[in-house]
Design brief:
This protein has 6 helices and 5 strands; from the N terminus they run ββααααβββαα. By secondary structure, the protein is mainly alpha-helical. It folds into 2 domains: about 140 residues, DNA-directed RNA polymerase, subunit 2, domain 6 (Dna-directed Rna Polymerase Ii 140kd Polypeptide, Chain: B, Domain 6, Beta Barrel), CATH 2.40.270; about 40 residues, no CATH class.
């Protein structure tokens, strides 16, 4: 008995489904070159643009909190990275890193855990933190608004968590500030390649004389009232 597994690489395409960690799922509507994406003042482009209408209706504000905290932690990591790169003098470098870590973790945790580290251990910690500060925030006893604001200000970011973006296509500034940050995004196992389906004439239900439903039955697309209105608006009814 021989088992053969064939692995293929499926790159992301419009129609594929993605989600964050707060039930904020959705399908990709458009993929554009990086130079067409909105960019920040420092020239860094955003990777994903999410529709803000997905927040109030579902009331999953956790995604906003994750966005703010992710941005603050990423920038603080970059700050530590710059100190590690720029300063050759070990004592001066360690003093600056200790100063930042005391502000991030608070005096109590700093005195308990970090103060006692030797130069080698502190250097190792700095390298680990330079890609971003790892944090966890419990459900009901998590970061308060003040905590988030302080962390953003410590990272020299706007305390609102919002910044001005420029349109990558026209180079024009957007009218309003935009919430920007770093979050986890997951690719879900609902790929448009597996779902795409069409039919011309095919099987009908014996009882209702309507086309069957679903790809497996070679069914038709169900049109609700609103879809019918869309057709009527086109004059295609």
């Amino acid at each position: 008995k021989v088992k053969v597994f064939v692995a293929i690489k499926r790159s992301l395409k419009p129609g594929d489904k993605m989600a964050g960690r707060h039930g904020n799922k959705g399908v990709i509507s458009k993929i554009v070159p990086i130079e067409d994406m909105p960019y920040m003042e420092n020239g860094k482009s955003v990777d994903v643009v999410l529709n803000p209408l997905g927040v109030p209706s579902r009331m999953n504000v956790g995604q906003i909190l994750e966005t703010h905290l992710g941005w603050a932690c990423s920038e603080l990591g970059e700050k530590i990275n710059q100190i590690v790169k720029l300063h050759q003098n070990t004592n001066k470098k360690n003093a600056l890193i200790n100063e930042i870590l005391k502000k991030i973790y608070g005096k109590k945790i700093f005195d308990e855990k970090i103060k006692s580290l030797n130069n080698k251990e502190l250097e190792e910690l700095s390298v680990n933190l330079s890609s971003g500060i790892p944090i966890a925030t419990p459900v009901f006893d998590g970061a308060s608004v003040d905590d988030v604001t302080q962390l953003l200000e410590l990272a020299n970011l706007p305390s609102s968590g919002q910044t001005t973006l420029w349109d990558g296509r026209s180079g024009e500034q957007f009218d309003r500030k935009v919430t920007v940050g770093i979050i986890y995004m997951l690719k879900l196992h609902h790929l448009v390649e597996d779902k795409i389906h069409a039919r011309s004439t095919g099987p009908y239900s014996l009882v209702t004389q309507q086309p069957l439903g679903g790809k497996a039955q070679l069914g038709g697309q169900r049109f609700g009232e609103m879809e019918v209105w869309a057709l009527e608006a086109y004059g295609a009814s």
